[in-house]
Design goal:
The complex is a heterodimer.
Chain A lengths: L2 H27 L4 H6 L1 H21 L6 H21 L2 H7 L12 H26 L6 H16 L4 H4 L16 H13 L5 H23 L4 H12 L2 H9 L3 H21 L2 H14 L6 H15 L5 H27 L8 H4 L2 H5 L5 H13 L1 H4 L2 H16 L6 H19 L4 H12 L1 H18 L4
Helix pairs in contact in A: 1-3, 1-4, 1-9, 1-10, 3-9, 3-10, 3-14, 3-16, 6-10, 6-11, 7-9, 10-11, 10-13, 11-24, 13-14, 13-15, 13-24, 14-16, 15-16, 15-22, 19-22, 19-23, 21-22, 21-24, 22-24
Chain B lengths: L1 H12 L6 H4 L19 H8 L7 E5 L5 H15 L3 E2 L8 E5 L9 E8 L2 E6 L2
Parallel strand pairs in B: 1-2, 1-3
Antiparallel strand pairs in B: 3-5, 4-5
Helix pairs in contact in B: 3-4
Classes of the chains: A mainly alpha, B alpha/beta.
Chain lengths: 466, 127
């Protein structure tokens, strides 16, 4: 129970996930400079975490205990496969998945350089502060020790034991049996590596995921957005009070939001530019998103639908590619979905009720309070500053100025995310006030982060050239 | 860059000297390895119990019936520390009993009793 054991656990686990991620990217990055490889740190970590988690979830359903030995074997196998593929795949095939655009844009003016340097240094320090706080904080959200972490400990000690993961026995099962296993697997392994129960590791891992998201977004956008725009926009997210609160909260919503937002970013880049690299990343990020929380799947479908409509002019081939990626993500989640179905586990929120017009008609009084509470979370400057309103206003300005509806795509994504959660609360049977008080602040995370990653594009396109 | 670094270090060293919105960046309030429950629960006592309970045991927890929040938190916290030992709802089926400032509702045959302080007791039951 020391900072050292926390640090060792994080370095061991996250270093392994990073190695897997880099192996996955090896075919695409082969031949690049060391600095180029280093710039993909965040992308590699998030891709590696997704892949390892997905494989381990499938193995848990197959009956294996997700202990450290199995984790090491799976990670080593994935690294070996990735490296082998990097050398075995013919050059022509490798070039098809190589990122097309990696050259980072540079500031053309001294003022731009100063802004870039100050903002990037500030982000680096905010990340240090965030991680330092995470190392010194036990999660504030009771869901963490109520079921996310205990499920993870059980998976690493007993596997997917029906006595704990199914109702109906003499043993007390976990809450939220319908929830997928990915986040619990990550937490369970982290906990095993600390050597004893130390809940601060949950916040540490969330902090690492947030830092990785910022690094990944910076890498993916650095070749597309002017640095004097990109870094201040990312700084706006990095210092958002709600981001820091939620890292110390320890909930899975933030990780889900990170993967959904990066799926949307990579999916949009694929539709706009047709680079296979971004499509592969979109698929890998989507795979994690559907295996973190049950609401990941419907949100993924909705955001993919908005992307398809917004990118209609990209052509049938690219739209089809996006949906193949989404389908592949769902296929990766099939083992748990089939297991859940086979054991009759139902979603906490009944889909049949939430889609039943007569049921919904009898509870329309839930719409307005839900819309108010969720809207407040989206626009409250004390939470995420004014990221969401800014995206809507800038989208409108761009759409009017250039008479192009595409400018409104980020606002449409925000609108769909907002509408989805109003509908989910409308069709839910739990006491509305309780539901909103305990979850409204975190279920909007994906919507906010999608807006945050769209903001640099809008600002960059609206500002005149340097 | 130097100015930003100096400001960040100052914030890390003395967050109290900065205004609220900046101070929250260096915020950390619950520096403990333990869960932080809603109810007033002696988590350290539960952690001590985990050092006694065998890993393959079954256990039940008993808490004052008039405090559902305490009962829920105790169950969750015990599970975090006691896994892979398994919780059962019915104390008559448990090998061990964690009593939290309360007596069992039905008589139990105790082989050994461990007093963990603060009215928290771990009992090994005859089975």
């Amino acid at each position: 129970m020391s900072y050292r054991s926390l640090l060792e656990a994080a370095v061991l686990l996250d270093g392994s996930l990073l190695a897997v991620g880099y192996a996955l990217l090896a075919a695409a990055l082969r031949g690049r400079s060391l600095l180029d490889w280093a710039s993909y740190l965040g992308v590699a970590f998030l891709a590696g975490a997704s892949l390892v988690g997905v494989v381990l979830c499938a193995l848990a359903v197959a009956g294996l205990t997700i202990d450290l030995k199995l984790f090491a074997v799976v990670a080593a196998l994935l690294v070996a496969l990735g490296v082998a593929a990097a050398f075995a795949v013919p050059r022509a095939a490798r070039e098809r998945v190589t990122p097309r655009s990696t050259r980072r844009l540079r500031s053309a003016t001294p003022a731009g350089s100063v802004v870039t340097a100050a903002a990037s240094a500030a982000i680096a320090w905010v990340c240090v502060l965030l991680l330092a706080a995470a190392f010194r904080s036990s999660p504030t959200l009771d869901d963490v020790w109520g079921f996310w972490l205990p499920k993870g400990i059980a998976l690493t000690r007993l596997g997917l034991d029906p006595r704990l993961f199914l109702p109906g026995s003499a043993y007390l099962p976990f809450d939220h049996l319908d929830y997928p296993l990915w986040w619990s697997v990550v937490l369970g392994l982290s906990q095993r590596l600390t050597g004893s129960v130390d809940l601060r590791i949950v916040d540490v891992q969330l902090g690492v995921f947030v830092v990785a998201m910022l690094a990944a977004a910076a890498r993916l956008l650095a070749s597309r957005i002017r640095p004097a725009v990109l870094w201040p926009c990312l700084l706006l997210v990095a210092v958002a009070p709600e981001l820091h609160r939620q890292v110390l909260g320890g909930g899975a919503d933030l990780v889900l939001a990170i993967y959904l937002a990066l799926f949307v970013l990579c999916g949009a880049l694929w539709l706009a530019e047709g680079g296979l690299f971004e499509l592969v990343l979109a698929t890998v990020f989507a795979a994690a998103a559907v295996q973190i929380k049950t609401e990941g799947a419907p949100q993924l479908l909705l955001f993919a639908a908005v992307l398809s409509l917004a990118g209609w002019k990209a052509g049938r081939r690219r739209r089809l590619g996006l949906w193949i990626g989404v389908a592949a993500a769902f296929v990766s989640a099939l083992p748990f979905l089939v297991w859940r179905q086979a054991h009759g586990l139902r979603n906490d929120i009944s889909l049949s009720k939430a889609l039943d017009p007569s049921f919904l008609a009898g509870r329309t009084d839930r719409i307005a309070p839900a819309a108010r509470a969720l809207g407040h979370q989206l626009v409250n400057p004390h939470n995420w500053f004014l990221v969401v309103p800014a995206v809507i206003v800038l989208g409108l300005v761009g759409a009017i100025r250039e008479r192009r509806l595409l400018w409104l795509a980020p606002a449409a994504l925000v609108g769909v995310g907002y509408a989805f959660w109003i509908w989910a609360n409308w069709g839910d049977t739990m006491d509305l006030q309780f539901r909103l008080t305990t979850s409204a602040y975190r279920i909007v995370d994906a919507t906010v982060l999608i807006a945050a990653l769209a903001l640099p594009f809008l600002v960059d396109r609206l500002l005149p050239g340097e | 860059m130097v100015a930003v670094s100096a400001a960040a270090l100052a914030l890390l060293a003395a967050p109290g000297r900065f205004p609220g919105p900046v101070r929250q960046l260096a915020r950390h309030s619950l520096n403990t390895p333990d869960p932080v429950p809603t109810a007033r629960l002696d988590v350290a006592a539960v952690r001590r119990a985990a050092g006694i309970l065998p890993s393959r045991a079954t256990y039940a927890v008993v808490a004052p019936p008039n405090d559902p929040q305490l009962t829920a938190d105790l169950l969750s916290v015990a599970r975090v520390f006691f896994l892979p030992a398994l919780a059962v709802a019915d104390p008559s089926r448990a090998q061990w009993l964690l009593r939290y400032r309360t007596a069992p509702s039905a008589p139990v045959d105790v082989v050994r009793r461990y007093r963990l302080g603060n009215g928290v007791v771990l009992e090994r039951l005859r089975r």
